[in-house]
Structures are given as C-alpha cells and as structure tokens.
Amino acid sequence: MIKILVTGGNGQLASCIKDLEKLYNKLKFIYTDYQELDITDLESVDTFFKNNSFDYCINCAAYTAVDKAESEIKIAFDVNEIGAKNLAIVCKDFHATLMHVSTDFVFDGRKSSFYKEEDFVNPISVYGQSKLKGELQISKSLSNHFIFRTSWLYSEHGNNFMKTMMRLSKEKDELSVVVDQIGTPTYAKDLAQLILQLISTKNTQYGLYHYSNEGVASWYDFAKAIFEEIDAEIKLSPIKTTEYPTPAKRPAFSVLDKSKIKRTFQLEIPHWRDSLRKALLNYNG
Ligand SMILES: NC(=O)C1=CN([C@@H]2O[C@H](COP(=O)(O)OP(=O)(O)OC[C@H]3O[C@@H](n4cnc5c(N)ncnc54)[C@H](OP(=O)(O)O)[C@@H]3O)[C@@H](O)[C@H]2O)C=CC1
Ligand SMILES: Cc1cn([C@H]2C[C@H](O)[C@@H](COP(=O)(O)OP(=O)(O)O[C@H]3O[C@@H](C)C(=O)[C@@H](O)[C@H]3O)O2)c(=O)[nH]c1=O
C-alpha cells in the first residue's frame, strides 16, 4: 500500500482526486482540510507526519483568491510560500515525495510563444509571487519533488470559471468577458489523474513540469465554448482587460509548453474543448 496525504482536502483539485481514488486500489489516501492540518504551522505538519507514515504528500492546499491576495499579502505568502516550505522540510525528514501544484501566473505574459519550464519568471500579482516563492522553497530543500505548473483549472468541484459562467448564464441576459488574456483551460480531473498515475507507478523522474490541456484560448473563447455546450441563451461580448479592471494584474499570454512532460511520461493530453465536454457531463450527471 502507498500512503498519501492530501492537504487542502476540500478544495477543487483534492475533490477531483477523491473522485478518482477508487480506480487506484493500491493507494491509501488521507485528506486533511485547513482545520485538521494547517500547512502554515510547521509543528502541526511535523506531528501529523510523525503519527502517520506517508509515502507521498499531494499539496492541494493553497491561497487561490487572485484579487484578494493583493490586499491579503501576508496570508497569501504564509500559505503559498511558508506552507510549501513546511511540507518540503517535513517530507525530507520523513522520506516522503512531495507533489506540488503551481501556476502559469508565475510568468508576466510578455512572451509570444509557449512558456517552457526554464523561461524567465516574473510574476505580476501577489498570488503569482507567492506561488513562485513556494516553488523555490521546495526545489531548494527537497529533491524528491514534482512541481506541476498548470493553468485555468476548472471542474465540477469548488469555485471556478466554468461554474461562474454557468451561474451567470442563468442570472443575466448579457455578459462581457476579456478576450486579450490568452492561456489554456485545464480540467482539474485530468491533472489529478496524471498525479495519481505517477504515484501508482512510483515514478522518480522528479522536477518541474508544465501541464495544461492542449490548445489555446482566451477567457472569452472559454466562456463562449461553455455557453455553446450548455445551449445558454446569453449575449456574450468580447472586451479588453482595461474594460474589466481588477485589483490583480493577470498575464496577457500564459500558454504553457508541455513538451517536457509529454516526452518524459509519454503522455497524450486531451484538448481543452474535449475535456470541457467531459467536465460538463460529469457536472450535470
Ligand atoms: N484554480 C486555478 O485556476 C488554478 C490553481 N492552481 C494551483 O492548483 C492548486 C489547487 O488549486 P484548487 O484546487 O483550484 O484550489 P482551491 O482554492 O479550490 O483549494 C485550496 C484549498 O486549500 C485550503 N487551504 C487554504 N489555506 C490552507 C492552509 N493554511 N492549510 C491547509 N489548507 C489550506 C483551502 O481551504 P479554504 O477554502 O477553507 O480556504 C482550499 O480547500 C493550488 O496550488 C493552486 O495554486 C494553478 C493554476 C490554476
Ligand atoms: C467573471 C468574469 C471574469 N472576467 C475575467 C477576469 C479575469 O481576467 C478572467 C478570469 O477570471 P477569474 O477571476 O475567474 O479567474 P482567475 O482567478 O484569474 O484564474 C486564475 O486563478 C489562479 C488561481 C490561477 O492559478 C490561474 O491559472 C487562473 O486560473 O476573466 C471577465 O472578463 N468577465 C466576467 O464576467
């Protein structure tokens, strides 16, 4: 049996892992939420590992409120940097492997071709800065780690853009969505499946990897696809970022280059449009 701690156990990605766990009968999961295990508290994390013997920790705990982070700087860094550091320290002490998730928001978005793992990082938001610091803390103190930078996660669980659009399509007749931020929507269940696959095969090709679904889209394209799939009767208009002011800046372009992960693990990654269809089916039962 491989024993796995999933932190942030009530979040979106953790919920996707929960849905898939029945497919992996050699993996035993313990999920902890904020109340059971606060990753910012090193002593609690240490004690939790002492009382259990984990082979892996999947860190699904994070501060993900991009706009709120601009005014809650300390909390964002506590969770995304110090939390990640604590898990790395304790995983090292207890010989466990850490699977961590980071973001396309570590980039400033000025590039015009897909971002590779070794590309220059320059986050333009507090959230992005705190996530980058988390990556650095892990790579500095623990060799047995996987860090997956992903983008625009959505699923039937938690709060995300797909669910926001579905709700707004019921509440409004018209909606405007930014067309000049380009990235790739990623079904959180596809990422969850990859993580469990690597654990179940005890893969040791540690390191930093970019993972998103295939394809390229703006948030407007994403919204349009959602409305098409659900036959929503709503007028959708493309707008510029300047017409939708938010506290946090977001990269104008953050498409991830997935060559490394596809080559290393012989992966075939679904296109975002196909995964969206799957997610909507799963959501609507
Ligand atoms: N969502 C997205 O679009 C993207 C996410 N990512 C990354 O993917 C990962 C998973 O994201 P996702 O599942 O969407 O995030 P969620 O916000 O859905 O889940 C994060 C979970 O962490 C919990 N949490 C917050 N602080 C602590 C703490 N101190 N100790 C323990 N748990 C805590 C939250 O609890 P509570 O809700 O009670 O605060 C929440 O349940 C994150 O690392 C995120 O940065 C990367 C790219 C895109
Ligand atoms: C709701 C709404 C949003 N938008 C814009 C705002 C923003 O630029 C973009 C996306 O909005 P959201 O705030 O839902 O998404 P946001 O929180 O920016 O999503 C990010 O979350 C973090 C956690 C990540 O790591 C990123 O990869 C990314 O997924 O769409 C509109 O233009 N119209 C709308 O009606």
What does this entry look like structurally?
- This protein is of the alpha/beta class.
- Helices cover 39% and strands 18% of the residues.
- It has one domain (2-159, 186-214, 255-272): Rossmann fold, CATH 3.40.50.720.
- Strand 3 (56-59), helix 3 and strand 4 (97-103) form a beta-alpha-beta unit.
- The longest helix is centred in the first third of the chain and has 21 residues, at 73-93.
- The radius of gyration is 18 Å and the shape is globular.
- Dtdp-4-keto-L-rhamnose binds at residues 64, 66, 103-105, 151-153, 161, 164, 175-178, 181, 219, 244, 246, 250.
- Its EC number is 1.1.1.133.
- It catalyses: dTDP-beta-L-rhamnose + NADP(+) = dTDP-4-dehydro-beta-L-rhamnose + NADPH + H(+).
Any chance you could write out the topology, listing elements then pairs?
Layout: E1 2-7, H1 12-20, E2 27-32, H2 42-51, E3 56-59, H3 73-93, E4 97-103, H4 126-141, E5 145-150, E6 153-154, H5 161-171, E7 174-178, E8 182-183, E9 186-187, H6 188-200, E10 207-210, E11 217-218, H7 219-230, E12 235-239, H8 259-265, H9 272-284
Parallel strand pairs: 1-2, 1-3, 3-4, 4-5, 5-10, 6-9, 7-12
Antiparallel strand pairs: 8-11
Helix pairs in contact: 1-6, 2-3, 3-4, 5-7, 7-9
The protein binds NADPH dihydro-nicotinamide-adenine-dinucleotide phosphate and dtdp-4-keto-L-rhamnose (TDO).
